Prior knowledge:
single chain, mainly alpha, 434 Repressor (Amino-terminal Domain)
Amino acid sequence: MARRTTDALKILADIAGKAPEMQRMFEEEVANREVAQKIHQLRTKAGMSQAQLARKVGTTQSVISRLENADYDGHSLAMLDRIAAALKRRVEIRFVTRKPRPHAA
């Protein structure tokens, strides 16, 4: 009997299957989630509220809130660079070899 998984990424990868458009959408959603999580993680590690980071970046708290939302897909490199600078970081972009996606067990 096959084991079921509760790992959302594995479930979504299985749903995406081999359809190129579905794979692209899946990868985009994963990237959005990772960016949102990283912004939130760095901000909280710095002990800053969304409003405090917004002031340092020169934007509003609602913009920071949107950027920390995994469903938001409007990240711009310019804004990420401003956030990084406010948190005394820099943005690093890497192109890595794609790994085979995990499939639900």
